[in-house]
Task: structure prediction
Amino acid sequence: MASGINISHLKSAVLFNTDEVQPINKASKVKFDNIGEYSDDDINSIIRISKPDIAESSVKLYIKNLRLFKKLYDEKYGSKFGIPGTISGLGSWQFIMPTEDYDPLILFNDSPIATQRNYYAAILPIIRSFDKQKNQNPFGRPLPDIIQYYTDKIQLINKISKSNAENSIISDKKKEKYSVNFQQVLDLIPKLKEVGDFEGALILSLMTTFKFRNEISTLKLIKLDNYNLLNEQDKKDNNYVVLSADNNMFISRGAYKTDGTYGLIISKIMNDELKQDLINYITSMSDDIFFKSKKGKNKGNQIEPANISKRIGKITKKYLKVELGTSSITKLFVSSLDKDTMNNLIQLSKDRGTSLAVLLAHYFNHI
Result:
C-alpha cells in the first residue's frame, strides 16, 4: 500500500483534544477520550503507511505486541488516567505516549531487553505513519520527538545487547535454557510418541529438522498438482506441506519473519522417519490445517503463532524442566556445533569478504 492511505474513516482517528501542542518534556494537559477500538485491519493499514512493504507475518507480530503493551498499561495505569480498561482493543494511544507523569519504560522494568526492543519496534511504525498523515495526528504534540524517544531506547538496548554478547553476559533465564542441549530435545521426540503425543512429536521433529520460527503454526497441506496451479503471490503468502502422488514431500515457506529478504524457501523432506510421521499424521487430519487450537475461543481453528511456541514450551518444561521456544531450540542447535570451526569460518568470511553461504557452497570439499 502507498503512503497516501487515508485513515480518516477510523472512528478513533482523533483520540483526544488539546488547545495547544505539548512538548514531550512537559506534563500532558490533554483530556483522553476512549472512543472505540482499532481492529487488526485498521492497525495493519496504519502500519503500512510508513512500512508499505512489510511482511504480513511481521504486521501480525507488531499487532500482538501492541495489544500486549496496551494490556500492561491498562492493568497498571488504566484507572490512574481515568481510562476504562480495554484489553481486547486499542481504544486510544495514550499508552505509548511518554509524559512527565508516565514513562512507558516503567512497564518493562522486569522484561528481558529483547522483549523491550520488540515492544518499541512495534510502536515506531504507528507513530511514523501518523507523522506522515499530518492532518490526522492523534497525539496532540510533535511526533519527531516521540519517534526520537523510542529510537533512542532501541539504540540503547542494541548497545546493551552487543555489550552483553561481547562479554558473554547472559540472564539467569537464558542460563536455565542452556542447561539442556540439542540432543536432549531430539531425544524428546520418541518419548512423546511413546506417550501418544504424536502432534507434539511432529512439531518438535519439524522444528529440530528445519529450525522453523513460529510460522510452523500456519502450515497447510496441499497436493502437488494444486500447488502447481497457485500463482507466485499465493505461494509467497502461505506456508505449505506439499504432497505428491507418490508420497514425496517438500515444505514451501513464503510467509515468515525474514521473507522480505530471503523470499520463498523450499525444503525437501529427506528424513524417512519424518516423512512417515507426516504421512501418518495427515491421515488423521480433517482438513488442510496441520495444527489447531485445542481450547478457548479459537478452538478448532489454526493455532496462533504465539501459542505454538507456548505448546513447545509446555512440552520442554514437562520433560526437560525448562521452557524452550523456537528461537532457543535453534540456539541450542548452533551451540552444539564445533565452536572453533565456527569461529574460524566467521573470521575467514570477514578476511576474505565472502559470505558463509558462499564459503560452504563453493569452497567446502571442492578441492
Observations:
- The chain has 15 helices and six strands.
- Residues 338-367 form one domain.
